[in-house]
Amino acid sequence: MGVSVIIPAYGHCPYLPALLQALLDGTVRPDEIIVSHTGPDDPTDAVAAISDSVTVLHQAERLLGGGARNRGAAVATAEWLAFVDADVRPRRDWLQRLLDTVRDGPQRFAIGSVGCATSGGYWGMCNWMCEFNEQAPWCPAGQQTGGASCNMICRADDFQAAGRFPEEFQPGEDTVLFAQLRALGREQWFAPDATVDHHNVPGLKSFLRHQVRLGFHSALVRQRIPLRGSILVRVWPLALLAWVPRLALLARRLGPAGPGWWLRGLVFAPGLVLGGWFWTVGFVRRTTGATAA
Fold first, then answer.
1. Domain boundaries, the chain
2. Quick check: 217 and 170 in contact, CB under 8 A?
3. What pLDDT, on the 0 to 100 scale, is given for residue 261?
4. For the chain: N or C, fewer Cβ within 10 A?
């Protein structure tokens, strides 16, 4: 099973060297690694110093994440496409675990879990818990409809048939692609033991801005495809309460993590509630017709 690993990247990428080294040192080495980079700070020379087997696609004009991934996929040659982001660090058996998962289901694509490489302090952890709680390493294996494009694998043929990543979303492009893959009859499977660790961004301002953006694009995605909670974007006053089920889901997903995480959840509760409110601000903005977040 040949695998191309595709890494979208923008601007200065301080974690890219460690990411590439982790891929090269993994229990399964990819057939090819493609860095699809846009913006300033062309990493071509820095990447060449690590390995001459890594392909760098660079352009000065910025592409959003979906466009950068699509550009990498367009030149990939392997049967399978695996995607990771430039701000994560895969664990040594990451690719092996993803391949084991898709081997177990011939019509399957897989989403791995997201842990923490650096906490980012209180607000970085709040951001991680809000964004990746469905992909936390303690969540059970099985079918799901969530997922994150910073840790996934699918067949290259299925990727093309599903229409690739939409390029106008950032974030939310992964949710749309996953729905399109499921519409092809592919089974979406969560593999908690295929883990990448995320470098969380510190700071209250960054946290709140990101939550508004996540909420805005969550509503935008639900205006495009039917998903759980789509009624909230059709009857906009209901969108004002969107933070309630969001926080309830987060609390439920903390359960399998054990007592230690419940205690941490209490510590982080004020930040998570605040994040839920700001996520709802973005959700309501889009629901009431805003065009940008």
1. 3-199, 204-287
2. yes
3. 67
4. N
Contact of 185 with 251, CB cutoff 8 Å: no
CA distance linking residue 40 with residue 223, whole number of Å: 33
**Structure confidence by residue, pLDDT tens digits, 96-112:** 999 999 998 779 999 99
pLDDT of residue 185: 95
Instruction: Give the global pTM.
Output: 0.91
- HSE, CB side, 13 Å, CA atoms: give it for residue 265: 19
Calpha distance 206→99 (Å, rounded): 35
**What single string gives the DSSP state of each residue in the chain?**
--EEEEEEEES--TTHHHHHHHHHTSSS--SEEEEEEESSS--HHHHHHH-TTEEEEEESS---HHHHHHHHHHH--SSEEEEE-TTEEE-TTHHHHHHHHHHT-TTEEEEEEEEEEE--HHHHHHHHHHHHGGG-TTSPPEE-S---TTEEEEEHHHHHHTT---SS-SSSHHHHHHHHHHHTTPEEEEEEEEEEEEEPPP-HHHHHHHHHHHHHHHHHHHHHS--TTTHHHHSHHHHTTTHHHHHHHHHHHHGGG-HHHHHHHHHHHHHHHHHHHHHHHHHHHHHTT----
Report the Cα–Cα distance between both ends of the chain, in Å, rounded: 41
* Cα separation, 1 vs 103, whole angstroms: 9
| Confidence band of 198 (pLDDT split at 50, 70, 90) | very high
Quote the percentage of the chain above a pLDDT of 90. Answer: 64
**Kind of pairing, strands 187-199 and 151-155?**
unpaired
Right CATH for 3-199 from 3.90.1570.30, 3.40.50.10490, 3.10.50.40, 3.90.550.10: 3.90.550.10
d(C-alpha 150, C-alpha 140), whole Å: 19
